[in-house]
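Chapter review: from sequence to fold.
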Amino acid sequence: MDKAVRRYYQLKQKQKELEQELSELRAEILNHCEEQQLSELETKSYRVRLVLQERKEYDDDKLYEAIPDPEVWRLLSKADASKVASLIKLNVVPEDRIRDTYSVKRVSLLHVDKK
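The token string follows.
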């Protein structure tokens, strides 16, 4: 068992190092593309695409005020964006009722494909 635990620890350390390096490289690529105002970039062997995505981040207190129904809150339990979106699609909660309960966060997704 000691061998398995030791190997697990080693791999977790390596994972942390890889995630740190990935984060740094991602930031470098995003900065380059933003400076050059590029949404796509091609190198000799790779194709890079930036995809902008908007995510809603809900404020628990404002959402609770907008949806005071305890039956609905039992379905939500907290301001989870995917659960709120589902309730809107199912017409349980009208979208106009929660219009002022969230802020929109823009996120850049990075896709790198080999040619």
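Two observations follow directly from the output. The first helix runs from residue 2 to 35. The mean pLDDT is 89.
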